[in-house]
Amino acid sequence: MKRIIGFFIVLILGWACSSDSDTEGTVVVDPINEVSFERSAMLINWADNIIIPSYEAFSTDLDLLIDSFDAFKENPNEDNLVKFRSSWISAYSSWQHVAMFEIGPAETVGFQLNMNIYPTNTDNIDEFITTGTYDLSLSSNRSSKGFPALDYLLNGLGENDAEILAFYNNGTNNTVFTYTEDVLLDMKSLIGTVLSDWKEGYRDTFVANDGASSTSSVDRMVNDYIFYYEKYLRAGKMGIPLGVFSGSTLPQNVEAYYDGTISADLFLEGLSAVHDFFNGKHFNSETEGESLASYLDALNTVKDGEDLSALINGQFNTARDMVQDLASFREEIENNNPPTAMFLAYDEVQKAVPMLKVDMVSAMSISIDFVDADGD
Amino acid sequence: MKSIIDTYIKAPVEAAPLAVFRILFGLMMLLSIIRFWAYGWIDKFYLQPKFFFSYYGFEWVKPVGQFTYLIFIVCAISAILVVLGYRYKMAIIVFFLSFTYIELMDKTTYLNHYYFISLLSFLMIFLPANVYYSLDAYKNPKKAFQYIPGWTINSIKLLLGIVYFYAGLAKLNSDWLLKAMPLKIWLPSKFDTPLIGSFLGEEWVHYAFSWTGALFDLCIPFLLLNKKTRTFAFVMVVIFHVLTRVLFPIGVFPFVMIISALIFFDANIHSKILRFFSNRLKIDLNSFNTAKVFKQIPTFKIKIKYGVITIFFCLQLLLPFRYVLYPGELFWTEEGYRFSWRVMLMEKSGYAQFKIVNGDTGRWFYVDNSDFLSPIQEKQMAFQPDFILEYAHFLKEHFENDGHKNVQVYVDCQVSLNGRLSTKYIDSTIDLTKEKESFSHKNWITPFKDEIKGI
Q1: Is A299 in the B-facing interface, judged by CB distances under 8 Å?
Q2: Do A236 and A156 lie in a common domain?
Q3: pTM of the model
Q4: Considering A203, A241, B294, B431, which has the largest number of Cβ atoms within 10 A of its Cβ?
């Protein structure tokens, strides 16, 4: 009898301890018909070859942006304005390669929400420029800073460059330089925190958390990745301005609205980043490492199903082709009623969502949350 | 026939196994409620969502705001009373009602094991589980008995047997046996399991687990019934359930099943368990050994009770087969899927994009599901037709209250089942607001493109 009781105690203890432990485990040997894939290799590839280099490149581009602002501040002429604007476009494009990594340090500081909330709140910005009193760290001011605020400050303060320059050079508007500088410094401080946190500690935490649970790095990254694709790339950049969630078009909700010409390019940068991440392509290189695509291929060796990675890659390509044929989103929406070509392109962008959210997640058995389940 | 009735139904048996079952069941339930609460799930599942999915006919059962905690407290207290055997009849009725109410509040959280607990607690209302080793028996010696009729214990064995055997029958299909699905998807993702993790990617392991699982479910009731194989069977039960607990997020169910399987053992083991309790808690076990036999005179009331239990078991035997009344593939349409011991049978997921159309102007927009549903609700909704329909009606009501006129709701839904590529699940030309929930077949489900053979 004692044995039985003892057995139960061991059992209960085992249960109590078993629940969420992440233990190291590796899949070695490689005969046929076996799923042989190391999640940790994928995490290392993500961290060392994609995420950190992307952050570094973005940080560099942001420094260049600040340099061209300094030159413009020193000498506010049209030439410097054009240079400042072109650095802003490079940094904004560079941002599209880091926006999807809303995990760890980026999640902690709310990177996405602090850098790129649009439409930007021009009333607030106007007021801040006039009064010179503002606190950019307040969450209520998130829509008055970041890239969209710079869009307004670079393109929206006048009808043309002459008017914009006039605004900057008007003696009563001295605070506009201070405000622009504060917006830039706020961005610099955010990327500084995110990048140093990644390099000093989080990278190892991220790579070490290679288990399979709703809190493991792979599961969380996949959830964040799909969330980015669905909410920010598909809905934010295309769907919302198109009015697919509201019934009427909202051109002012286009990314980089005041510039008016680069929204489709920014989207395509974002799509490339998502596509490259899927294939584990190293930042700024043609080399590919372990990735979601190679993971799907490894899983397929026993499942013998459809070639999902090829289907997803194909869908990304179709979507890119369709968007490449469009004018800038603002023009598409403002000049066409209804904007049919953009709707059709949106449909192709949309088609990748169920592939990622249903087929890929299901194949990888990614959990969306911790909850009891007995298999649906 | 008469001898069967005499042996399995009328013959007096020791009450100790039922008393042990009552105590352990109550403890497990208490633990389960505490665990649910500790994870913050009451708030997450029953307070935070704006919308709850109801069972057909039970639309009136909803969470009641902060009072929902009260329901859990009532449920926990009644579980404690069941353990103590104090005012047992009232306690088990309250437990059954409160537990079942909780389960009916939102079908998103449907689990076979919650259903099992509702059924078991319903059955226990009719069982004299408090005549031995209980406060009721201690306080009122008139209500204390050492022997009870055999059917009381055998009915629990029967219910357990149905659960296992039907779960086994459900596995006899081509996906499970010939393709080792869905284990082929699930097991490789459990590579981080201690000891066995490195084997879980291998294909032969997927087949071995599938076939052993089916065989286990089909045989275990009989192996537990047979005295010669009982110990072996119990060891198997423990191994099987601990393994499922380690591999899958299946909660307390494995432990409920392990503890329940003890009921198959002879009374002397249960007496030893009670003696163990008694020594620790300084209870005089012998005072319960009255040698009295619990007998019920077949009054009208008692006859009704027997009738209820008979109908209960007939329903249990028939309900899992109700799917044959529906056309189409059961795993795809899920018509007749629930309440049938189909546990861990499929990897299914979906994506549903709802389109709100103004019937007069044709103007339309899509719905952002996360505005209304929690991630879990959205996940469950996206591949179950009854969820999709209920949600569509909710959307119509919501947007009409918002001032939209003549709202029509269409859905673009893609579903993947057991590793098949996702395909269209719902006819996207059907205005779902025109469709009504009922027990009849939903002809707006796009037929399954493949075939799954079997029961």
Answers
A1: yes
A2: no
A3: 0.89
A4: A241
